[in-house]
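Dear colleague,

Thank you for sharing your sequence with our group. We've completed the structure prediction you requested, and as agreed, I am returning the results in plain text so they can be pasted directly into your records. Please verify that the sequence below matches your submission; if there's any discrepancy, let me know and we will rerun it promptly.
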Amino acid sequence: MDGFNLAMNSKKVLLVEDTRSLALALKHMIEETHRLQVDVFGDLSSTEISLNKKAEDYCVAIVDYDLPDAHHGEAVDVVIKNKIPCILFTGMNDGSIQEEDLWEKGIADYAHKSMDHSLEYVAWMVGRINNNALVDVLVVDDSSVARNSMARLLKIQQLNVFKAGSGEEALDIIRDNPQIKVVIIDCYMEGMDGMKLTSKIRESHKKNEMEIIGVSSQGGQKLSTRFIKSGANDFLLKPFTPGEFLCRVNHSIDNIEMYSELKKLNHLKNQFIGTAAHDIRGPLGAIQTSASYMLTRDLPEKKAEKLLQLINRSSKELIELLNNLLDVSAIESGSVELNLIEADVTEILNERVELYTTSIDAKEIKLQSEFEPVNASIDLIKFKQLLDNLLSNAIKFVPKKGRIFLKLYQSDINAKKAFVFEVHDSGSGVEEEEIKLLFNPFTTLSSRSTTSEKQTGLGLVIARKVCKAHNGSLIYQHSELGGACFKVKIPVSQFN
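Please find the predicted structure tokens below.
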């Protein structure tokens, strides 16, 4: 059972479920939560046809035990035979399915349809299995049978597993692989026991950086307390069920990843505040210096006018930056309510383009557009803000006598009607390694505006968040014009 397919790049989930409403609800939840494509089949026959063509496309499968043409778990067997991690999702409760037999088959997990929050659990497990290929776990037990049994369960869930038969070997593995997130340690081992090993690990790895789960077949609650006081995060008493064991391990991984994410967010917050303070200090300093100069000197009218223009310009920059900061904060917190109206998107686009005619003419940019008629429910103010950020961004990075191409057409999002707006330019584009940084606040990339136009580093952040608030998306692609292409995709209606 160790050779399961790993299809991290394909990002597809196989869902075998004959209750259509349930299948659609689960499909929507997975696609919204994890951005994974879900293929749905309602019987064994169509599932087999799909697997014969593209079994390697699937990173995980959710399978109903009882199907119209397969009443005894045959679909589960077919999925496991194709080496796809299988989550059993069943409504049967007549006792005909024995949990032990299912684990023996090689399922990755199971959930009962009658459980509260069963859909949420299955969706969470799909994401967990899909991400587990990036997670390293160490199993430490001097019994090869116990060690291999735990490792087998972990590998079915796509985890990368290291094994050690002693405390000394475990320390060597951790030293060479400091990225290990979870260590499972048996208490009673020859030589260095589990509690001593736990204490040694804690000398170099904090609880929020590496989780330790103690296991033992003896000692009961007193041993659990001792283990946790030695530095463990959790404890399991043998014999435990595979389900209990995997739940504890996966939640431990969640804890580590949550701490890592919080740490990263805290760093970004500090960077955000520091950069914002720096950007605010510039125009504020210019205002203060100019005002002080005017108050303490008798200036000629021409000199005073220049200083007033500097104060006016700096004030505008400061207000723009503060407004952008407030927009990012409000949209991020989810406190923004869209004021939706039915609008002519094509007309709005033509209007916004007209506003930038002076800037376009100044750089002798050749502008081409191809707009289909589109009507949609949008927040007019925020949508115009989105367009302004994308248009001004293109103008900034296009060289003199360069090209901009705008395209508007209809498409769909998850079977819902949508419209797509593309902004292509002939600028220098974005370096491959910098694409992932594009939508981060205050990001400084190697690309520079062609005439030193002022940049706050927030335009694309706001644009993407406006798209998200409209249940849409904003992505970057390389343009055929040689530069950047930003593609907006938004549902035509926000009400269904």
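Summary note from our side: Confidence is low (pLDDT under 50) at residues 1-9.

Kind regards,
the structure core
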